[in-house]
């Protein structure tokens, strides 16, 4: 069972949500298209991942040439796990 919400509380909640939406739109930019921003970020993420994959392939080849492990190359180059 749920407790009924008064019309006053509903209006207050609605006003708070509208204010939050307005604040977020202002932060984003009034004339910015959220879908376009998301698409741009996805495209940039794909480019980043491709570059990271290529780098890992090169690190693997370097490890083979040096007859060591990829982990050792990462340590030698001071690469963190998050990179």
From TrEMBL:
Keywords per UniProt: Coiled coil, DNA damage, DNA repair
GO biological process, one term: meiotic joint molecule formation
The keyword Coiled coil appears for this protein: yes
Coiled-coil intervals: 7-34
Cellular component, GO, one term: Swi5-Sfr1 complex
Keyword Acetylation included in the entry's annotation: no
One Pfam family in the UniProt entry: Swi5
InterPro entries noted in UniProt: DNA-repair_Swi5
Superkingdom to which the source organism belongs: Eukaryota
Family to which this protein belongs: Belongs to the SWI5/SAE3 family.
Stated name of the protein: Swi5-domain-containing protein
Organism listed in the record: Mycena venus
């Amino acid at each position: 069972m749920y407790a009924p919400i008064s019309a006053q509380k509903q209006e207050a909640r609605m006003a708070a949500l509208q204010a939050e939406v307005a604040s977020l739109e202002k932060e984003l930019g009034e004339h910015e298209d959220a879908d376009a921003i998301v698409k741009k970020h996805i495209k940039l993420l794909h480019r980043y991942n491709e570059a990271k994959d290529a780098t890992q392939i090169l690190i693997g080849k370097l490890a083979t040439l040096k007859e060591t492990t990829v982990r050792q190359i990462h340590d030698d180059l001071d690469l963190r796990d998050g990179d």
